Amino acid sequence: MTPPLVLAQATTPRGLDCPPAPQDLGVLSDAIDFITSSRESISGGVCVGGPAELFELAVSHLAVSAVALLIAVVIAVPVGLWLGHIGRGEFLAVSVSNIGRAVPTLALLAFFVAFLGIGFTNVAAALTLLAIPPILTNTYVGVRQSDRESVNAARGMGLTESQIVRRVELPLSLPSIFGGIRISAVAVVATATIAPLANVQSLGNPILEPQAYGQPGQLGAAIVVALITLATDGGLGLLQRAVTPTGLKLGDQDMRPRRLPIPIRRRTRTA
Q: 3-state DSSP: the chain helix, strand, coil percent, rounded to 5?
């Protein structure tokens, strides 16, 4: 008696709910397919990619970025307002900005491992130090460039120094402050891809783990990071527009160059 054939079991040994990676797509098409649908990993045995995993990684990515940016704002804005109001500390603000741009974030991450260990706190601390310099510098510059006549008028009306900062200098410097926040937000969201080096999940996992995600995963995650970065900058731009005083908006519109109609004279032919 011949044994029965078990072809059905032999054709599906993987036992996964995702198909293998497509083989006939281009690099960009394969990356987009990685974003829109899951697939078997390069090493096999696990499903990677797709909206579900990328959404989970994006949430963790944005969480560590938001915490770092919020801490940087809480630290840098009050210090910048105080230094700008008293008219001192220009050397400090410029030096902090230059040092923050010179020190690599990866080096800060490695430095904090010795003190904070791996984890969320380490990554948030490194990203916070990356975010502070642009916010501090722009806040200082915004306060120093605010209208001195308005400040002197407020002081003549009897406002205290803290009231002058809150009611006059802070509203006038909001465009510059938000400019620094937007610069820091873009840098933080883009740099949070190094979080997996400290055992924190982010959209950097597919970029730093090509042995599991492959080149499509790297490019797909990079596309998602770029889109999130642009969306973050656009959202902060709308928030800046919403909180900017109406008088400043009207002033910006009045300072825009206007086109003046220039009469064009036609030449007349002479006999």
A: 70, 0, 25
| Three-point CA angle 172, 245, 135, nearest 5° | 45
| Cβ–Cβ < 8 Å for 18, 6 | no
Q: What's CA 168's distance to the chain center, in Å?
A: 29
The span from the CA of 75 to the CA of 134, in Å, is: 12
**CB within 8 A of 127, min separation 6: which ones?**
64, 65, 68, 69, 105, 188, 191, 192
Which region, left, alpha or beta, applies to residue 35 given φ > 0 means left and ψ of -120 to 50 means alpha?
alpha
Q: What is the rounded distance in angstroms from the CA atom of residue 197 to the CA atom of residue 62?
A: 16
Specify the range with the lowest mean pLDDT, choosing from 14-28, 62-76, 89-103, 219-233. 89-103
Which residue from 92, 93, 94, 103 is spatially nearest to 130, judged by alpha carbons? 103
Indicate the burial class of 114 (C-beta count within 10 angstroms; 0-12, 13-18, 19 or more).
exposed
Looking at residue 26, its amino acid is: G
State pLDDT tens for residues 163-191. Answer: 888 888 888 899 899 999 999 999 999 99
Output phi, psi for 76, to 5 deg: -80, -40
Domains defined along the chain, listed by start = 32-246 (1.10.3720.10)
